[in-house]
Design brief:
about 220 residues; alpha+beta; Glutaredoxin; Glutathione S-transferase Yfyf (Class Pi), Chain A, domain 2; 2 domains; four-stranded mixed sheet; 4 strands; binds glutathione
Length: about 220
């Protein structure tokens, strides 16, 4: 049977975000198991689909045509829009929406792009991105400082935004997983928040799906 949704990409924390959301929503989909740093993102077929040559990439065949979407966060939001994941009153309020934007900017910019991803590039992949020990040290410290600033908002028994699980929990949990991979310190309240997320059946299923039988193991 063919399904209208196909995800290109496995084996990274960014592809995990998308597989996790699809499992949470219980949406059936197909996977093209291409990996980063294998050359598989540079084939003509994939480049026609995503000229950025980046995974994950989502393809959704609908009655209105074919939607091709890259950027894992945009894919999460799109999937939430077509799936069934309820919003509570706070999440629909103006203040709640502003808090959502605040979390997204914080996780993607402060925790991920300016901290963990820099460490990943210059500590674990120096052959591609070059060595930069001073940047690695300062980005690890910056990540810890930024994470510590939100510790009072993290707890073991509730999602980070409103009263229900959302894509923000996927972004935050995967950032914390990523912190472990690159050797950043994750303080106890963040660990307490992360542990129950790891128990979610959709997380566990997505982890298996995303990291099985890889040509290149992500963990250094
Ligand atoms: N901002 C993008 C980043 C995607 C990205 O950088 N993907 C990497 C893997 S984590 C990739 O596809 N690299 C291409 C390659 O290494 O071949 C997202 O969140 O989806």
């Amino acid at each position: 049977m063919t399904t209208p949704i196909t995800v290109w990409g496995v084996g990274t924390t960014r592809t995990l975000r998308v597989h996790w959301m699809l499992h949470e929503l219980g949406i059936e989909y197909g996977t093209r198991r291409i990996e980063s740093r294998t050359g598989e993102t540079r084939t003509d077929e994939f480049t026609r689909l995503n000229p950025k040559q980046k995974i994950p990439t989502l393809v959704h065949e609908t009655s209105e045509g074919k939607l091709v979407l890259s950027e894992s966060y945009a894919i999460l939001k799109y999937l939430r829009g077509i799936g069934e994941m309820p919003f509570d009153d706070y999440q629909q309020s103006t203040a709640g929406k502003a808090a959502y934007d605040e979390w997204v900017s914080f996780i993607l910019m402060e925790l991920d792009a300016t901290s963990l991803y820099v460490v990943r590039r210059h500590k674990d992949l120096p052959d591609i991105y070059g060595e930069a020990p001073a940047a690695v040290t300062s980005c690890l410290a910056y990540f810890e400082k930024m994470l510590n600033s939100v510790l009072p908002k993290l707890s073991a028994d509730k999602p980070i935004w409103g009263s229900t699980f959302s894509e923000l929990d996927i972004l935050m949990t995967v950032a914390l997983d990523w912190a472990d991979v690159v050797g950043a310190e994750v303080a106890d309240p963040a660990r307490a928040y992360q542990n129950p997320m790891h128990e979610r059946p959709a997380y566990r299923a997505a982890m298996k799906h995303n990291f099985r039988d890889l040509k290149i193991q992500m963990r250094p």
